[in-house]
Amino acid sequence: MKPIDPIAAANLRTPEWYRTATRWTQLTLVENDPVKFDPDFWIDVFQRTRSNAVCLSAGGYIGFYPSRVPLHYVSKYLGDTDPFGRLVDGARSLGMHVMARVDPHAIHQDAADAHPEWIAVDKDGNPRRHWAFPDVWVTCAYGDYNNKFMPQVVKEITRDYDIDAIFANRWQGHGVCYCESCRTRFKGATGFDLPITSDVNDPAWRAWSGWRRDVLTRMVIAWDNDVKAIRPHASFIPNMGGESLMEFDIGLIEKHCPFLVVDHQGRRGLEPIWLAGRNAKRMRATFRDRPVVLITSIGPEEEYRWKDSVTTGAEIESWIANGVTHGMLPWFTKFNGVVPDERWVAPVAAGFEKHEKLQAMLEATTPTAEIAIIDPTTTLKNWARDERRQAEGDDLGFYHALIEAKLPFEFLSDEAMTAESLDRFKLVILANASNLSDAQCALLRDYAARGGSLIAAHETAMRDESGNARDAFALGDVFGVKRTALARGPVKNSYIVLSGEHPVNQGYEGAGRIIGGTKLAEVETVEGVQAPFVSIPDFPDLPMEEVYPREEPRGAAVVTRETAAGGRTVYIPWNIGGIFWQVLAADHQRLIENAVRWAMDGTPRVRVSGHSVLDIAVRESGDMLAVLLFNLTNPMMFKGPTRSIYPVGPHKVSIAIPEGRSVRDAQLLIAGRKAEYRTKGDTVEVDLPEIELLETVEVRWS
Predict the structure, then answer these.
(1) Using CA atoms, how far apart are residues 41 and 25, in angstroms rounded to an integer?
(2) At what angle do helices 586-600 and 576-583 cross, to 10 degrees?
(3) What topology does CATH give the domain 6-103+164-173+199-362?
(4) Out of 236-250, 327-341, 404-418, least confident range
(5) Which of 266, 256, 253 is nearest to 301 (CA)?
(6) Residue 329: beta bridge partners?
C-alpha cells in the first residue's frame, strides 16, 4: 500500500513526528471487539479520511494486547489475538504515525481486592463504584495506581509496540478523593483537611486545587520520562481541554507536551458550533505556537451519552470545519470497532478534505487580529472544574457579540500577558476578569499608557489573584471611575437610559432606554469621562401596578474615555456579557459592538459585508493574508444537531493593503479557483458569490 501522506511518512519516528500528524483517526475498542470487529475496514477508513495519524486503544482499564503486567486486565475475548498490534501494523504500513491510548480511571474486582488503596473514596468514606458500570471501581488518580501501577503498563506498551506516543484519557481524576493516602498527603503538604465543598472562597478548596495541580503535573513528567527512556522520540500526551490550562504549570506543559489535544467532542443543548474553534483561541491564548488537535465525536454529545451512535453529517462536518477555521488539527473518534451505521464516514472525510485543502496555507501563516479577549485564567482557577462554564458566561457573551458583528478576534490568557503580547492588539477586552494580580493590572495600565485601548465590564480587577475583594477598583485610574460597591444581584427589571449623543449609544432610534443587567456594581466617575448610558435605580417588577421608576436616572452605566496616549477605554459596571449570553438581547449585542467599534477608533483591517452570521479568522505571513469565513447562518446554530448546511451570499471581503505592497493575486482555497477582486486606494475588495460551510480568501502581495 502507498503511504497516505508522503510528508508524514518521511517524518516517521523522528522527534518532530507530531508536526506532520495533522489528521487523526481514533478507534476506542470495546471488550468483545477482538472477535467482532474487522481491522481491514478500519485500515480502509484511515485511507478514505486521508488520516495520517491514529490513536488506538491499548490498555489501562482493559488491555487489547497480550499484557504481562500483573493485575492488568485484558479482554476476555482476546484469545491468541492482538487487535492493538494488528492495527498498529496496518497504520505503519500506510506510513502513519501511531499513538497508543490508555484509560486509567477504573479497575476490575481482582485489582480492587489486591489493592483497595487504588480505589477512590467519597466524602462519606465509601469506596466509589463506577457511576455508569457498578461492577467496577473508580480509581484514585493521585496515588499509587497512577504513580506505580500504570507506569508499568505505559512502559510495556512503549517497549513492545512501534508507537510514537502514549495518550491518556480520563487520567485526571473525578473530583476530591478522600482515601487515607490523599487525606494524609494533602494534610502534610498544606495543613488543611480535604475540602467538603467546592466553594471558591474556602481556603481548603483553593489549597486542594493547587495540591492536585502539583500531583498531576509531576505525574505527567514521570510518564513522559518513562516513555522517552524507551523511545527517545516519543512522548506522553495527556488528554486536555481548555480548562486543563488551569490545572498545570505552564512551563512544564511547554516542556513535556509537544502538542495539545482538546477533548471537546461536540456541542450539547443550546451550545453554538463556534465553541469548536473557541478551543483553538483558548489554547493559543497561552501557547501561541503549539499544535492543537480537536477531537470530534461522530455521535451526539449529550448528557445521556449515546457514545455508540451517529449524529447528522452536517453536524459532524461543521464541528470539524469550525475547528479547522481557527487552526485546529482534526481528529475524529469512534467508540466500538463494529460499525452498524456508516453514515459518519463521508462527513468526516469531507471535513478532513477541507483541512487538506487549507493545510499548506495554515502551516505557512499565523493567526492575527486587532482585538483580543482576555481569557481570565487567574479567575477560573478559583472555580471548580464543573462550575467554570458558569464563570465563563461573560466571555461567551462578548465572544458571540463579536461574531454577530463580523469582527475577527483572538484570545490572550491573563497568565501569558506581557508588554509584547498585549501590543499585538489594538484593543483588549476584559469581559469579567474579576481576579487579577497587581502585576497583571500594571501590565494593562502600561498598555493603556502606550496608547492601547481597553474595554472592561462587571467585576474586572475588583479582586486579587486569590479571590479576595480589593478595597478599590485596581484599574479605576485607567477607566476614570471609582468603585463604591461590589456587584449585587441578581436584580430584576433593571434599565439604563441613553444619555447625550455618543457613538456608543447610536442605533437605538425610538428608544430612550434599554434593559440593563442583573448584577450591578456601583461606581462614581471622575472628570474627563463621558457616560453614554446612565442607570435607573431599581423599582419593583410586581404587582404590575407598581412597575414604574421611583427615582431619576443616576450613576453611570457605561463610561467612556479618550486617553492622553491616544487610546480609548470603555467600562461597563454590570454583567453585560453574561446577561447577553443568557438572554441574547439585540440591544446588548449592539452596545458591545458599538463599544468595540468606538474603542477601535478606525476602520478594521479586515471587513466583511453580507447578510449572514459568520465566524471569521484571519491569518498572515510575510507575503499573504488569508481570511477564513465559517458559515454559522443556520436555524440550528444554537440547538443541534445541524440538519443541513444553508449557503449564504454574496459577500464582499475588504482587506487593507500593507504599505509598500500591491495585490499579486487572490484565491478561493476551498472552491479551488481564482477570486474576483478589485483595488480601491489602499484596500482590496474580494467578491464571494457564495459560502456553503467554509471558504477561505487568500490574497498574496507583491
Answers:
(1) 13
(2) 140
(3) TIM Barrel (3.20.20)
(4) 236-250
(5) 266
(6) 293
Question: E strand or H helix at 413, and its extent?
Answer: strand 410-413
Cα–Cα distance list, 241 to 127, 142, 283, 295 (Å): 27, 19, 9, 10
State the virtual CA torsion across 126, 128, 129, 133 in degrees, nearest 10.
150
Q: Is 570 left (phi over 0), alpha (psi -120 to 50) or beta?
A: beta
| Region for 681 from its dihedrals, namely left if φ exceeds 0, alpha if ψ lies in -120 to 50, beta otherwise | left
Cα–Cα distance list, 592 to 399, 444, 575, 597, 603 (Å) = 10, 20, 12, 9, 17
CA dihedral 534, 407, 393, 632 (to 10 degrees): 130
Radius of gyration of the chain measured on its C-alpha atoms: 27
Counting beta carbons within 10 angstroms of the beta carbon of residue 129, is it exposed (0 to 12), middle (13 to 18) or buried (19 or more)?
middle
pLDDT at residue 243 is higher than 60: no
pLDDT per residue over 107-152, tens digit each? 999 999 999 999 999 999 999 999 999 999 999 999 999 999 999 9
Q: Where in the chain is the domain with CATH 2.60.40.1180?
A: 606-701
Backbone angles phi, psi at 531, to 5 degrees: -125, 90
Q: How is the beta sheet containing 410-413 ordered, strand by strand?
A: 410-413, 371-375, 427-430, 453-457, 568-572, 556-562, 530-536, 495-498, 513-515
Domain with CATH 3.40.50.880 in the chain: 371-600
Spatial distance between the Cα atoms of 645 and 516, rounded to a whole number of angstroms: 35
17/25 Cα distance (integer angstroms): 16
Instruction: Tell me the pLDDT of the chain averaged across its residues.
Output: 94
HSE, CB side, 13 Å, CA atoms: give it for residue 291.
Answer: 19
Dist. CA 397–CA 574, nearest whole Å: 13
Residue 396 near residue 581, CB atoms below 8 Å = yes
Residues 6+ apart with CB under 8 A from 174: 105, 120, 128, 138, 141
* Cell numbers given for 637: 446554530
CB 674 within 8 A of CB 603: no
496 CB contacts (<8 Å, ≥6 apart)?
513, 514, 515, 516, 533, 534, 535, 536, 553, 557, 558
Domain spanning 371-600, CATH architecture: 3-Layer(aba) Sandwich (3.40)
β-strand pairing of 24-28 with 53-60: parallel
pTM of the predicted model as reported, rounded to 2 decimal places = 0.94
Q: Which fold has domain 606-701?
A: Immunoglobulin-like (2.60.40)
How far is it, in rounded angstroms, from Cα 171 to Cα 676? 51
* Poorest-pLDDT segment among 46-50, 87-91, 260-264, 606-610: 260-264
Question: Secondary structure of 552-603 in the HEC alphabet?
Answer: CCCCEEEEEEECCCCCEEEEECECHHHHHHHHCCHHHHHHHHHHHHHHHCCC
Rounded to whole angstroms, the Cα distance separating 675 from 689 reads: 10
Contact between 40 and 86 (Cβ < 8 Å): no
d(CA 675, CA 686): 7
63 DSSP 8-state letter: B
DSSP 477: H
> Of 499, 454, 475, which is closest to residue 601 (Cα–Cα)?
454
Round to whole Å and give the CA distance between 548 and 54: 64
Name residue, grid cell 481570565.
376
Q: Which helix (H) or strand (E) holds 513?
A: strand 513-515
Query: Please, are residues 602 and 371 in contact by the beta-carbon 8 Å criterion?
Result: no
How far apart are alpha carbons 374 and 376 in whole angstroms?
A: 6
